[in-house]
Amino acid sequence: MQKVRVLTGQYGATPIKDTVFKLEAPFKIGKKGGFITVCGKDVVGVPDRKIRIKVESPNSFEEVDVETPVGGANTKVETDAQIIKRLRERFEILKDMTDAAIDGVVRGMVVTGPPGVGKSFGVEQVLDEANVATKLTNGKEKYGMEKGAASAIGLYKLLYEYAEKGSVLVLDDCDTVLYDETSLNLLKAALDSGKKRKISWKSESRVLRQEGIPDDFEFKGSVIFITNLKFEKARGKIADHLGAIMSRCHYLDLTMDTMREKFLRCKQIVGDGMLDEYGFSKKEQEDLLEYIYVNRNKLRELSLRMVTKIADLKKMNPAKWKAYVESTCMRRV
Asked: Are strands 14-30 and 3-11 parallel, antiparallel or unpaired?
């Protein structure tokens, strides 16, 4: 069942703030204003049944991850500062683990999180620095990033290209390989915990012969898989395959499952200087963030990419940027 976090609302004379409920019926407008129907079970201070929570608008609540605990006054809620600290620590871990992949300590890592929050950037930044260092010593680049779809034979060729010890192959948003059994078997072989990781292509291939690629080789590199999928929530046949990948990899969930966490990630990166190149004043940056927060449920997505889009429009026309955002970045209601 879908859950929602009521940011500000009211049940009778009882104020409801930052409380998670199971949603029974979506937002509606009645004679006395807007409301949502939720289940009061397990929430302190409200009846143990279906109830209506009065809310001003859809901006007064947000969808949350299905595993978020239901609770009211007795449920510990992170402050904004605590969430920002947690997210910053997770991204620092991402960089440290990428360094470990370069050193060959980490053979495989799965990084999961919502789109547009900087997953790829964090990994790419570390690899770019490593490639620069390699070039300075006249060495061969050993770190590559493949974005988008990859066929099974394409994956085989990539693994061969980055098979040397100390090499790192990053598969960014290549989720198609997870639904192809041949590709999955190649990944499992590349990520195996044994001393020797032998990879083979059993089908006859003129393409491999023409490119001088053998039909088997030993893989000594590391693989980083960046995805929007949560492997542990997969169901059906693919769940077994993903479980096999997870058992061979370090699994880093960047823990951004709610609108609040996504917004605070954007706020953190803006605070770190993301918009400095636009020449906005501190007040202008705060106004932009406040506008995003107020309209977070209307935007097509809440991400760093969306922040950049809106900043571009604000820079383009400071007088009409909000109208442009409403026309190009928001869902039609």
From this structure: antiparallel
